[in-house]
Structures are given as structure tokens and as C-alpha cells.
Write a structure and sequence with these properties.
The protein is mainly beta and 279 residues long. It is built from one helix and 15 strands. The strands form three sheets. It has a five-stranded mixed barrel. It has a five-stranded mixed beta barrel with strand order 6-7-8-10-9. The protein has a five-stranded mixed barrel with strand order 11-12-13-15-14. The longest helix has 32 residues, at 2-33. The radius of gyration is 31 Å and the shape is elongated.
């Protein structure tokens, strides 16, 4: 009888230990699952597909992340991607867990780096683009697969990007070198004959066939004279045939580039020495 009771107590004790261990394991797993996520934004230095790690840098500090098996990757267009879409030089936002000093990435989202300005030069041979903004120049290497985006998201070519255009460049910095991945030139082009100019109000009136338009000239408008962007409104004359690139803002036409139309013979000259800078 005593042997039977002893066996029962042993069984009960084992059951209690098992339940306690299971409870502790469950509690530990719950605590791990509830570990708060942290966020980090930096530039990709390298991706090791074999070791499933990602090295990043922000300012002078670098971090290395382990890529979780269920890590989500989101591209600039908000579509899901894979680890193969990560590349050195791009900016990313990372949600991760810090497990006793081990950083485990749960999600990675590409972040755009953008710069806007007026096209100062395009060098087809060197494959570079220089933008001018507020007295400063910034030069970009143009990636081989760089996209040219026009108004309404239409695809364009480098011929659509001209000296004097106001553009938005989305870029990355592989090896520390700004490299354009996308160039957006979203202005509308209007070709016509200059009929009136008000230097004080900085307005123009231009006629094309049966259409007349009034334009307000932006402070940073590039006026192309002899292939250069430093022209003045006073350089324009009535009857000049012009191409105006402008944006329509709530019904107001704001022109950001004025250049001579092809085939004209009046006072504004044309310089077409470089194929990618044709006016």
C-alpha cells in the first residue's frame, strides 16, 4: 500500500515539475515575443547573402543586423521585395529586435533620398548630371538603369531632360558617390510666340495657333541664351518663338524654363552641341 502511495506521489511530483517547466517556457516565449521592436535608419554598406547579415551606417556609426527568416522587404514603390533587392548605397528603415546585443531585423523598407534643382549640365560622355540650387551645385553619376519619369508617371528618355529643367532626382550613394536612380521631369512644355512681356510683374503672354497663355515667371526660372542658363527676361523680345516648361498650380502657370524653339531666326540663339542637352 505504501509503495503504491509512494508511486502516486512521485507521479504527482513529476507532473507538477513538468507543468512548472512548461509554464516557465511559455512565459519566456511570451516575454520574447513581446520584446519591443526598435527602429533604425541608415545606408546599406554591404549585404552578405550567405551569412544572412546586413551592415549599415548612419553618420560615423555602423550597425550589423541578422536578417530574420520571416523578414519583410518593402521597395520604394511599396511593393514587397526580397533580400536580393538590397544594394550598397541605398537608404533603408529597419524594424528590429535587440536580443542581448544581437540585432535581428524583422522588416526593412527602402527610403528615398531626393534632391531637386535646376539642370546645369549633362555630360553624356561621363554620364553625369549637375543640378544647381540656391547657389550650390551637386553632381550625380547617372546609373545605367536610371529611370526618367515625366508628368503623370509616363516614362521618358534623357532627351526629355534639358539644361534649365527643374527636376527631382532620387539617388543612392554607393561607395559614397551620389548616383541617380530616377530623374523626374514633370513640367508641361508649351511652344509659341511671345506677344507681351511685363518685366515688373515678371509675366509673359505667349500665343500658339488659337491658344493664348499667360505665364508667371518663377524666381529661379532658367532662361536659355546661347546655350547658357543665365539669361534675363530683358533678353526676350516680342515675336520670339519660345518653348516654355511650366507647372500649373491651381490654375496659375508658373514657368521654370524658357528656351528658343527649334528653327527660329530671332534674337535668342540655340546651342545643340551635346545630344543630351538639346533645347
Amino acid at each position: 500500500m505504501k509503495t503504491l502511495m509512494s508511486k502516486n506521489w512521485v507521479a504527482f511530483y513529476v507532473a507538477v515539475l513538468t507543468a512548472t517547466a512548461a509554464f516557465r517556457t511559455s512565459a519566456d516565449q511570451t516575454a520574447l515575443a513581446a520584446r519591443p521592436e526598435k527602429s533604425y535608419t541608415g545606408t546599406v554598406i554591404s549585404v552578405d547573402l550567405k551569412e544572412h547579415t546586413l551592415e549599415t551606417k548612419w553618420l560615423v556609426l555602423s550597425k550589423k543586423f541578422n536578417l530574420g527568416t520571416a523578414c519583410d522587404y518593402t521597395l520604394l514603390d511599396n511593393h514587397f521585395g526580397t533580400v536580393n533587392d538590397l544594394r550598397p548605397g541605398e537608404k533603408v528603415a529597419i524594424n528590429y529586435q535587440n536580443v542581448d546585443g544581437v540585432l535581428v531585423a524583422d522588416s526593412i523598407k527602402q527610403q528615398p533620398m531626393c534632391y531637386e534643382g535646376i539642370v546645369k549640365t549633362i555630360d553624356p560622355a561621363a554620364h553625369t548630371l549637375t543640378l544647381h540650387l540656391r547657389g550650390m551645385d551637386k553632381t550625380f553619376q547617372i546609373a545605367d538603369d536610371c529611370k526618367i519619369v515625366l508628368r503623370a508617371g509616363k516614362s521618358g528618355t534623357f532627351a526629355d531632360v534639358r539644361v534649365g529643367n527643374h527636376v527631382m532626382v532620387t539617388y543612392e550613394t554607393p561607395a559614397g558617390k551620389p548616383t541617380a536612380r530616377e530623374i523626374a521631369q514633370t513640367s508641361i512644355a508649351f511652344t509659341g510666340t511671345l506677344t507681351a512681356i511685363d518685366l515688373d510683374e515678371r509675366t509673359l503672354k505667349v500665343k500658339a495657333l488659337f491658344e493664348n497663355k499667360k505665364f508667371n515667371v518663377a524666381d529661379n526660372c532658367a532662361i536659355i541664351i546661347n546655350g547658357k542658363t543665365d539669361g534675363q527676361l530683358s533678353d526676350l523680345k516680342p515675336d520670339d518663338r519660345l518653348v516654355l516648361d511650366y507647372d500649373e498650380i491651381n490654375g496659375v502657370n508658373v514657368v521654370n524654363r524658357i528656351a528658343p524653339a527649334e528653327g527660329r531666326t530671332n534674337s535668342v540663339a540655340v546651342n545643340n552641341t551635346a545630344p543630351m542637352t538639346g533645347n
